[in-house]
Amino acid sequence: MNLEKFQQYCLSLPGTSEGLPFGENTLVFYVMGKMFALTDIEEFESANLKCDPDQAIELRERYEGVLPGYHMNKKHWNTVLFDGSIPDKLLLQWTKDSYDLVVAKLPKKVREELTGRS
């Protein structure tokens, strides 16, 4: 995985944007203003992704490259290492899962705006 591919994927999801709220090195991806992924753009060694609490524990037990979320609520966030132990396809799926978790918590009106339905 490289930064450009990760960034392009995140920004391809509906309603997403990016920003640097924690300094010039931490790139954060948002859906409708709510964070769903973040990574260090200078060292690009990992990404923090939101995760269902039960699944977060399961992934940490199953994959060496999945750790409790660094500087995040460890119940709801995982840090996924880009050390080659996690296939890109799986990393992108977990990124989409993170996005979907955030979307599911958005107010109904905002979700409808995001999907174009009323």
Give me a quick take on this structure.
The protein is an alpha+beta fold. It contains 4 helices and 6 strands; from the N terminus they run αββββαββαα.
* Discrete helix count: 4
Structural class: alpha+beta
* Order of helical and strand elements: HEEEEHEEHH
Radius of gyration: 14 Å
| Residue runs with pLDDT of under 50 for 5 or more positions | none
Classify the beta-strand content into a percent band: 25-35%
CATH architecture designation: Alpha-Beta Complex
E-strand count: 6
Biggest sheet features = 6 strands, antiparallel
CATH C-level class: Alpha Beta
Q: Which term fits the overall shape? A: globular
Count of all domains: 1
InterPro entries: YjbR (IPR007351), YjbR-like_sf (IPR038056), YjbR/MT2646/Rv2570-like (IPR058532)
Keywords: DNA-binding
Pfam family, one: YjbR
GO molecular function, one term: DNA binding
